Structure prediction request, 176 residues.
Amino acid sequence: MPFDVEVNVAGLGELENRLRQLPEKLAQKVLVSAVRAGGRVIQRQAIANARAAFKKKTGRLARGILLDTKIFGRGVRGAVVRIRIGLRTRPGNESPWYGRLLESGWTHVGRAKRTTLGSLARGLFRRRGRGEARQRGKGKAIAGKKWMLRAFEQKGPEALQKITEAIRAGLEKVAN
Prediction:
């Protein structure tokens, strides 16, 4: 359930002018490192929320919260640095596939029931799927905990502050 947030912070005009004076690759390096520093703040809060909300083992879930950064556009002015903080989507034993269920909730309908339909049906036993039960409105709705969304809401302003500080520090480091 990704969503985009566009924020204007006062005082970034001066930093943007200083970034434009740098070569493109160097400016992008400063921007990406700053955005990743801000994203790590939210990532750490998401891990803390997961451990607080789900008292059982959450090692796989905590390891599966990843930080992904991409640059779209060219130049400093037209470039957009997009960061994604989310769950690992690669299939395998270490995939925390259940994290999205814990975030947004699900409908528990139980196991599929077997019914005997006779020899004319496809095989002796045929399963009635869980989709049918969901369509009939059966099942128990289990609400999500919204642990990722809460992490963004809790640490969003702190992450923005960290980004501006990291841009300033990166510009100082490049200037020296």
Q: What stands out?
A: Residues 12-98+146-175 form one domain.
